[in-house]
Amino acid sequence: MNVFEVDWAGGKAVAVCTDDSIGERVVRRLDRMIDVESRTVENVHTPQWQLQCPRISARGRVAWIEGFASDRAVVTGTVHLLGVGAIARR
Q1: What is the distance in angstroms between the CA of the first residue and the CA of the last residue of the chain?
Q2: pLDDT digit string, tens, across residues 7-35
Q3: Could you give the number of structural domains in the chain?
Q4: pTM score
Q5: Positive/negative CA dihedral, 68, 74, 64, 18
Q6: Which domain holds residue 82?
Q7: In sequence order, which ranges of 1-90 are alpha helices (DSSP H)?
Q8: pLDDT digit string (tens) for 58-72?
């Protein structure tokens, strides 16, 4: 697994990952919830576009940005909240 971005709070982390090496499937990133203590990984979102800026609060709420972008340093897209969906466009 390649981890591109990660954020953590307490014993949990959220990460933008891919199971493939960097290549043709670079757009198909998986947003994963990682339980650090039990060492388990759960797929929580399979995106249509690239994911950026995963964030997890101390209470376990997860947010990220999903959008069409070819440069990892450019933040553009729709803000999503896990369990709620899109909360802010662009």
Answers
A1: 29
A2: 998 888 998 887 766 654 555 566 788 88
A3: 1
A4: 0.78
A5: positive
A6: 2-88
A7: none
A8: 888 999 988 876 566
